[in-house]
Structures are given as structure tokens and as C-alpha cells.
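Fig. S4 source data, part A: sequence.
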Amino acid sequence: MYQKTCHSCNKVSYSSYPDGLWYCPYCKKEITDFGTIQSNNLTVVSMEKSNEKKQNNKQSPSLLV
């Protein structure tokens, strides 16, 4: 995964491919010539684990006394 920070809006854009035209998804400015950083520390969570967390958070609330 690759990332660039837009100099116009200061938001981070991600892509799986570092080359080619690159536009900021937030402000639509072209950021092709900005520095590209390879992000190897991103964690991918499977949908199964994500759904499991959602179900665990939907437990019935405790009664307050």
C-alpha cells in the first residue's frame, strides 16, 4: 500500500499502485508529483473478525441501579 499527503488539504491518500496519475480523493487536486511513502504497517482485518466484534458490542446493557 502506498500513500501521499495532499499539500492542498493535508489529507492522506492511499493506493495499491505507486505510479500513474494520482488525484486527492478529498479536494481533487493532482498529487502525482508529491512524494510517495510505502505503508507496510497497515493491518487488514477480515470481515469475519470485524463482524464478530460488532456482535460482541451489541450485548444487552447492564441495568443501572
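Fig. S4 source data, part B ends here. Helices lie at 47-57.
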